[in-house]
Amino acid sequence: MLTITPIAGIPLIQPGDDLVEIILDALEHNNLTLLDGDILVITSKIISKAEGRQVNLATVQPSQEALQLAGCVEKDARLVELILGESNQVLRSRPGTIIVEHRHGFVCANAGIDHSNVAGEGDQAEEWVLLLPADPEASAHQLRQRLEAHTNVRIGIMIIDSHGRAWRIGTVGMAIGLAGIPGVVDLRGRPDLFGYNLRITQIGAADELAAGASLVMGQAAEGTPVVHVRGFPYPLREGSLAELFRPRQEDLFR
């Protein structure tokens, strides 16, 4: 049975905080012991905060390209400059939104840069924004390696962020960094209930779990940036976020 359990007691994260020590302490206080096959799902926000990815907009000098795009989308040119710096390509834009291919390879709005629940010392909160982790896949692997060394169990780590989708309203949790879990589970060739072999079915298992974990984490002031998962219905393996990327030649939204 799949269980997703919020881990209470994670403090507000500051740059340089040791997330492994914080998570282990919170697990103990929640009477949770990691077992082989467990997964920890972690919001990208606390990874970014620990990595010092906060930026004060007052320090950003927008380029001419940013100034021009900012006028079209009605956004702060300093924020647009950061969006451009975090992106491989601007795919779509309209007032209020810039859709980009992030430099990490996935498509998202505004390069995943966040204003919510971000504050800095000595300035108004609105002046600070938070970039996505510098390398969420590497961050996931580092966390997994250290947690496994402390606990002597085999676990998976997933870092998630809230993204919109081209064909639906509303944001959902999506994976942006994996370690020790599959991104996609390929069911092609397996029989269905009636004995027919599946031909095209591939399960976005990481994103399915990310969406479920996001329900537990919440999107506003819940303060639950880490959840514990037990009973994931697929075998753990070394996975990669790249498994979830649709090849560009098959992407009908490009």
Describe the 3D structure.
- The protein is of the alpha+beta class and 254 residues long.
- Helices cover 26% and strands 25% of the residues.
- The chain has 2 domains: 3-53 and 132-246, 60s Ribosomal Protein L30, Chain: A; 54-130, CofE-like domain (CofE-like fold, Alpha-Beta Complex).
- The protein has 6 helices and 12 strands.
- A 5-stranded mixed beta sheet has the order 1-12-2-8-9.
- The longest helix has 16 residues, at 136-151.
- The termini are far apart.
The total count of strands amounts to 12
Beta-strand percent range = 15-25%
Report the end-to-end length measured between terminal Cα atoms: 39 Å
Unreliable segments of 5+ consecutive residues: none
CATH class of the largest domain: Alpha Beta
Which radius of gyration do the C-alpha atoms yield?
Answer: 19 Å
Secondary-structure element string: EHEHEHHEEEEHEEEEHE
Q: Could you report the average pLDDT, rounded to the nearest whole number?
A: 90
Major pleated sheet: 5 strands, mixed
The largest sheet has its strands arranged as: 1-12-2-8-9
CATH topology of the largest domain: 60s Ribosomal Protein L30, Chain: A
Tell me the domain tally: 2
